[in-house]
Write a structure and sequence with these properties.
This protein has about 100 residues and is mostly helical. It has helices spanning about 1-20, 25-30, 40-60, 65-85, 90-100. The termini are far apart.
Amino acid sequence: MLSVNAALLLGLGAIGLSISILRRGRFYHWLKPDSRPRRWVLILMLGLFAVFVIWFPVWMIWPHALISRVLTLLFAVTWGIGFLTLRWFSGLVDRLVQRKGWSLR
């Protein structure tokens, strides 16, 4: 039970920290400008975490149900797109973000 509570607190802390950085809160200004993470990476990670939070309990309760398999496929596709974007297409995404006039960091 302790590990479940620790994982829950860690997850909530990561979400709070990510939202604080995305909103350019106190922690964001505390970081050096070169150390600040890219905003699109944080959004990608929060989206992946949201899909995981929906998928995992359903998969644990009903592992062979159709909804579980559909959510497993959604999680795998989200993970794959996130991995490909971070691994091979990060330069393209950076250029797209800058061309649109959005803040990169």
